[in-house]
Design brief:
The chain is built from 15 helices and 17 strands. The chain is an alpha+beta fold. Among the domains are: 2-71, Phosphorylase Kinase, domain 1 (2-Layer Sandwich); 75-156 and 165-309 and 317-330, Transferase(Phosphotransferase), domain 1 (Orthogonal Bundle), CATH 1.10.510.10; 491-579, Immunoglobulin-like, CATH 2.60.40. The strands form 5 sheets. It has a 4-stranded antiparallel sheet with strand order 1-2-4-3, with helices on one face. Strands 13-10-16-17 form a 4-stranded mixed sheet, with no helix packed on it. The two termini are 58 Å apart.
Length: 580
């Protein structure tokens, strides 16, 4: 019922703002019903303020034509992006699907909670589909087109026997003409995610509207996990519940569906953020696609991106209005996108020059100096051995000494000093005292010379409380039992001879820091970029990570137990695995 132009809105003092100008078509401008629908859309959209809903700047009438000045989004609809990705054998990643569902559900929260004059209006969008979701080059998602939105305050302009909405996306109660609430939009959001994940809606294989509506109202469609295996378990659960035939079996509100998507993404190890929908649309409004394979599989490390040549543009139509018009007819039938030169993941440039090295210093922090653990271990062992030796020597010396302190070395030294001078009259009393004890050193020397008392000393030493050392005695293993230097402690986590029960467990693998380009390999099988989260059979596995520049992590060898979650984190700075 309207045409959309790209225009400049003059604010004041020669200040202009680019806008999307929606103008009612001249042939409908005199129809009271179409004018009321146009104004109903303006009333609904003007009352909404949300980052995932296109904002309305101005509403007015000029020369008998109603118009709306709206926020201009530099991007494309998800329908166009999805079609272009499929043409290049690419698709949305699980992260992108989670982000689309969360952002759209958040927008529907604001739609369903709209109040006018402090009164809830029970607004229902009724046309949630990939065609009404705009994806900008900055990775933001915008819900548009409230032309057929139904609120309790506007008039019902639907003719008898006519259902408004896009065939294949509306809910069963919408197809049967029943009263609608916000749960109808949640069904349409589930079909939208189904379409973006699989490439088709559950009803596209039907050739006419009667068959499609018949399958819709009877609930005859295949679950997403049957037609598109390999996705996250959380996506199957959320989409399945939102597409229940009865509205009472779906999520009660858009906020409940958004929270379910957020929890499912967190359980799958997927982090949703501002970059989740980047690199699908460029700043020029073109769609980027990977020539082969899935976008969820990161290109091999060191692989160069190729730029797909753009097809020649169709000749422009004449007339000033035709140049400003941005309707679907003016777009090329097939958009041949080019691959963005920006990597999806921040990878430090290899073989960089001086300028790029300085830039890398700002992007990637320099690793901190590390101490060699082997040197510290050797120093600790040497210190323990020396301490044990000194303790044993003191203990053995205490066992062999005579308790009498008189025959100790100081009297001997005095006697040795006193012997050289000749005896005088003043000295006779001193030799008499010295002769009584110092003249008999023989009983003291033989025990110190004999080796027999020294050998049994180390064995009873730990038993004597009086000779207990201050530090515990560390017994080092035999040389043949010591682990080799190049062995990794991760290989001894699970006993090799212990049987592993049959079943399935969860294996999550990530890196620290997490924003480094890497590929995960499990038993020589490529699992794609980290983080990964997959349910596998219980058993022993070999896990490694390949980093940018060809650097490979040490292998982690361990056990995945049934009905348990094994979380592995490879610390790039220390080069070690951490199991949680």
């Amino acid at each position: 019922m309207a045409e959309v132009y790209k225009a400049d809105q003059e604010l004041t003092a020669g200040i202009f703002r680019p806008v999307a100008l929606k103008v009612i078509r001249p042939e409908y401008s005199s129809s009271p019903d179409f004018r009321e629908m146009f104004l109903d859309e303006a009333r609904c959209a003007c009352g909404l303020s949300h980052p995932n809903i296109v904002q309305i700047f101005d509403v007015g009438e000029a020369d008998g034509l109603l118009y709306m000045a709206m926020e201009l989004v530099s991007g494309e609809t998800l329908a166009t992006v999805n079609r272009t990705l499929r043409e290049h054998k690419d698709k949305f990643t699980d992260e992108a699907l989670y982000a689309i569902g969360i952002y759209c559900a958040s927008a529907l929260e604001a739609v369903h909670a709209l109040k006018l004059h402090d009164s809830h209006v029970n607004l229902v969008h009724r046309d949630v589909s990939p065609h009404n979701l705009l994806l900008s080059s900055r990775g933001t998602l915008k819900l548009i087109d409230f032309g057929i939105a139904k609120a309790a305050t506007n008039r019902n302009l639907t003719s008898p026997g006519v259902t408004k909405g896009k065939a294949g996306y509306f809910s069963p109660e919408q197809a049967m003409g029943k009263a609608l609430d916000g749960r109808s939009d949640l069904f349409s959001l589930g079909v939208t995610l189904y379409k973006l994940a699989y490439g088709q809606t559950p009803f596209d294989h039907h050739t006419n509207h009667a068959d499609r509506n018949g399958a819709l109202v009877r609930g005859l469609w295949k679950p997403l996990e049957e037609v598109q295996p390999g996705l996250s378990r959380g996506l199957y659960d959320v989409i399945g519940k939102s597409m229940q035939l009865k509205a009472d079996n779906r999520y009660r509100s858009a906020s409940e569906m958004r929270e379910a998507l957020e929890q499912a993404a967190f359980a799958s190890g997927v982090r949703i953020g501002a970059k989740s929908l980047l690199n699908y649309v460029t700043d020029d409004g073109e769609i980027t696609a990977v020539p082969t394979g899935s976008r969820s599989s990161m290109p091999a490390v060191g692989a160069q991106e190729t730029r797909v040549a753009e097809p020649p543009r169709a000749p422009e139509r004449g007339g000033a209005a035709a140049e400003a018009r941005i309707t679907h007819a003016d777009r090329p039938a097939v958009i041949e996108p080019r691959v963005s030169s920006k990597p999806k993941f921040p990878v430090a440039p290899m073989n960089a020059g001086p300028e790029r090295e300085r830039r890398t210093d700002r992007m990637v922090p320099r690793p901190r100096p590390k101490r060699n653990p082997m040197v510290l271990a050797v120093a600790f062992v040497v210190a323990v051995v020396v301490g044990v030796g000194i303790t044993l020597a003191l203990m053995s010396g205490n066992d062999d000494r005579v308790p009498d302190p008189e025959p100790w070395a100081p009297p001997r030294e005095q006697a040795a000093v006193a012997k050289p001078p000749p005896p005088t009259e003043a000295q006779p009393p001193e030799p008499e005292v010295a002769k009584a004890e110092p003249t008999k050193p023989e009983p003291v020397e033989p025990p110190a010379v004999k080796p027999e008392p020294v050998q049994p000393a180390p064995e009873p030493a730990p038993v004597k409380p009086t000779a207990r050392p201050k530090h515990p005695i560390v017994v080092r293993p035999a040389r043949g039992e010591r682990p080799e230097k190049n062995e990794k402690p991760e290989r001894t986590e699970a006993p090799a001879n212990e049987p592993i029960p049959a079943g399935q467990g969860q294996l999550r693998i990530s890196t620290s820091p997490a924003n480094v380009a890497s590929r995960v390999t499990v038993d020589r099988s490529d699992w794609g970029p980290a983080p990964v989260n997959q349910r596998i059979a219980s058993g022993r596995y070999v896990v490694s990570v390949l980093l940018a520049g060809g650097k490979k992590s040490p292998d982690w060898v361990g056990t995945v137990m049934p009905d348990a979650t094994t979380v592995l984190i490879y610390d790039i700075d220390s080069g070690k695995w951490q199991r949680r």
